[in-house]
Fold:
Amino acid sequence: MNAPQAAARVPTSDAAVPDDALGRALAQSVERYVARRPHSARLQREAAEVLPGGNTRTVLFFPPFPPYMASGEGCRLTDVDGHVYLDALGEFTAGLFGHSDPTIRAAIERALRGGLNLSSHTPGEAALAREIRARIPSMRRLRFTNSGTEANLLALAAAVAHTGRRTVLVFEGAYHGGVLSFPAAGPAKVNVPHAFVVAPYNDLEAARAALAPHRGDVAAILVEPMLGSGGCVPGDPAFLHGLRALADEHGALLVLDEVMTSRLSFGGRQGALGLEPDLTTIGKYFGGGMSIGAFGGREDVIDRFDPRRADALAHAGTFNNNVLTMAAGLAGLREVLTREALDALNARGERLRAALDACFARHGVALRASGVGSLLNLHPGRGPVRSMRDLAGADPRVRDLLFFDLLERGVWMARRGFMALSLPFGEAEVDTLVAAVDDAVGARRGLLPAA
Structure:
């Protein structure tokens, strides 16, 4: 069976595509995608023999199969079929430094010469921790992990241990890791068993009402200052500061998940908003492209992990302090990610979002770009996006068609419409992306919902 025939059995969205103009256009776009990627199709079939669905990281998969990437340079990717893409996905925010930054590569090569696993403390740990604290002062003490998921798990463990309570307030559409996910529709199937209370995002009164029955048992409020995987929905400053006050009212810890949003200013989103949490979690780019996470905050909470204490909380992790991450992270923060570079990147993101919204308005289509700075998400529909509820009812085929049309034009982003710009993504790349979207939307204007 050839690749196009095999792919025809795989649905292109969550529901079968009806026989209408939009559905036919999407099906044709998928057929062209499959026909032009025989090597990716073969690798997917072979991978499925040893990995469920050929996959070991769910977010990367989309039907009929994802492209298999062969190499990256700057903000360009090349797949195994020879297609070159403008990388607007930026490894879901982890690829902030782009591909193969020379300063970070040199730091990794130096670290390699010293040995991979040194079985003890190394000078790089405290050096990277100090650099992080200089940027995010609320992380007065911190501990490293291997991912943002681990960082959030340990932050909640610290909150429960510190308060002696169990209830954790979270929000619809939030994603704090593979076992801390709260989609707006349907239950999360693999969450760890904390006593979660879920409230709508950007609704302080709903949050207050949700906590009222649990007074005396609230350990933490865990919140992203902008929903990341939930669609780049910025938190209203009044909402976020209101959560600070609500946590104080309940004697709970405010845990700010800045795994994605820390890149939105030199001091993280909390620095831009003047918001001080009790605990902060980070990850993604802080390892310079290597695996990393960290949780930190108040001394009285984090010092409970001090192994010199008789009552210390244990925190293991063979690779928490691995030498490659420490070296790459330190080089990236000290030598590459200056305040000026980060501010310029976020300014480019703001320009991109404004240009995309202007493009949609010019074509008279109901599309919108949400987000802050260098993080954005394209959504079908009209009006502002303040919570996942504002996205309900949108036809997912609109998003899917735009995704495949942009792939044809050499733009790589998440199928859900998510983009995260990297430092090499310059003004010329912004113009290239806007031109590709303008061309795709113009070609499909009759199929897209009218504004």
In short: The two ends are 43 Å apart (CA to CA). The mean pLDDT is 94. Residues 428 and 434 are 10 Å apart (CA to CA).
